[in-house]
């Protein structure tokens, strides 16, 4: 069953720069989509539009047939994790960050804390619940930020969409490995913007490649994970859009 349909999506910044141009694709419920592209390709803009943070110049985004721009309740089914967790974590303790959205919705402190701790457990981070975010490692901050989104979904995450921007950037190998394992086991639909093509090979069901705001090759409609993996092995194609082969595919390693 389709979870998300993006149709003819375009976005212009105030200076007239077109960040996205007629982007169209579908994401299957419960799947993991990688949005790959060089800096400036439109990845972060796409995630922010799907999250409802901005409105497009043209096009629409529909969840289960309902526009997220016309029906505000649908925007609560998506949540975004920004590239810099410090932009997302601001409360005195991690559990308060994870509970913040629920408290804003009027949930009791006890109920919000219970939901926050459950979300932290999903990302193997209960042990940091009482810590301030500035005392966390990079990997712990990423997991705390993901927990804050999962908590906002209020329980069953299966019908939700989590958007994650460059989750493995600046992480050491062990923290990266742990985060990838956690994202992989989540039951919600996951859309990940990343340069980490090795992660894409490990975790994603399909890959969408952006270049200068346009889709240059879309594996989401191919119905075959092997097709996306073949593209991730195509050095000439990847270089043409400003990317390199995954490390595991480079012959000199």
Summarize this entry quickly.
The protein has helices at residues 43-50, 72-75, 94-104, 109-122, 138-152, 173-185, 197-203, 225-231, 235-240, and strands at 2-12, 18-28, 32-36, 58-63, 66-67, 78-81, 161-165, 189-194, 206-211, 214-218. The protein has 253 residues and is α/β, with parallel strands linked by helices.
Summarize the SSE layout with pairings.
Layout: E1 2-12, E2 18-28, E3 32-36, H1 43-50, E4 58-63, E5 66-67, H2 72-75, E6 78-81, H3 94-104, H4 109-122, H5 138-152, E7 161-165, H6 173-185, E8 189-194, H7 197-203, E9 206-211, E10 214-218, H8 225-231, H9 235-240
Parallel strand pairs: 3-8, 3-9, 6-7, 7-8
Antiparallel strand pairs: 1-2, 1-4, 4-5, 9-10
Helix pairs in contact: 3-4, 3-5, 4-5, 5-6
Biggest sheet layout? 6 strands, mixed
Mean pLDDT: 89
Helix residue percentage = 25-40%
Give the count of helical stretches: 9
Keywords:
alpha/beta, single chain, 253 residues, 34% helix, four-stranded antiparallel beta sheet, 10 strands, six-stranded mixed beta sheet
Report what the structure shows.
The protein is an alpha/beta fold and 253 residues long. It has nine helices and ten strands. The strands form two sheets. Strands 6-7-8-3-9-10 form a six-stranded mixed β-sheet, sandwiched between helices. A four-stranded antiparallel β-sheet has the order 2-1-4-5, with helices on one face. A hairpin with a 5-residue loop joins strand 1 and strand 2. Helix 3 packs across helix 4 and helix 5 runs parallel beside helix 6. It is globular. About 2% of the residues have low confidence.
